[in-house]
Amino acid sequence: xxxxxxxxxxxxxxxxxxxxxxxxxxxxxxxxxxxxxxxxxxxxxxxxxxxxxxxxxxxxxxxxxxxxxxxxxxxxxxxxxxxxxxxxxxxxxxxxxxxxxxxxxxxxxxxxxxxxxxxxxxxxxxxxxxxxxxxxxxxxxxxxxxxxxxxxxxxxxxxxxxxxxxxxxxxxxxxxxxxxxxxxxxxxxxxxxxxxxxxxxxxxxxxxxxxxxxxxxxxxxxxxxxxxxxxxxxxxxxxxxxxxxxxxxxxxxxxxxxxxxxxxxxxxxxxxx
Length: 273
Hints:
By secondary structure, this protein is an alpha+beta fold.
């Protein structure tokens, strides 16, 4: 079904076939075209003869196909528009159109406008990004570009060196989180090795209310109940609900976390020889 724009003069086509077999295109006919349009009162107007005459398109290459140009008056009402073509010796040819205030070509223009606006917004956004960030967007940045960008954001420093040493990491963590040996697991609020600083294997078993093991539970150990000094973790329980830490003798605090589960944190644990 074709959409016609209101008040325009489109050329529409229809097919007429011989009444004798219902399939062969009928050529050289004198065609009468009637049309009815939605009258705006909930009913169609009675069929009226079209103003213009129908003409054959191409009797040799397109036998049976005819065309007619509608007038602006014939397309001036929004809604259904019926066209019926008749001729002696041919089956009638019917077409149904819908008249709208805008057609597909108008939508194409609107889409092009939206895309153009989108392009303008993208240009404005890119213009607001720093030159270093643009370099990153345009391809893999060089070490110097990364160094310049990080320096602009975080202060001067040689950001494009090779991987830092353990001592450099220790110094950086101490500066950010407090004094202590981060290399041995006794550092500040988020330090510590993954399993712990001790030599005694300490099995942590986490279960639900029905004593079923819980896997994927994040566990960590602190030396204080406030959780300020992490000495081990984070480790995650296995399928048996077990996470193994290496601790020395003494009293510690266990913290547990997993989405959708509320644990009573922290829990006091005691490690003995």
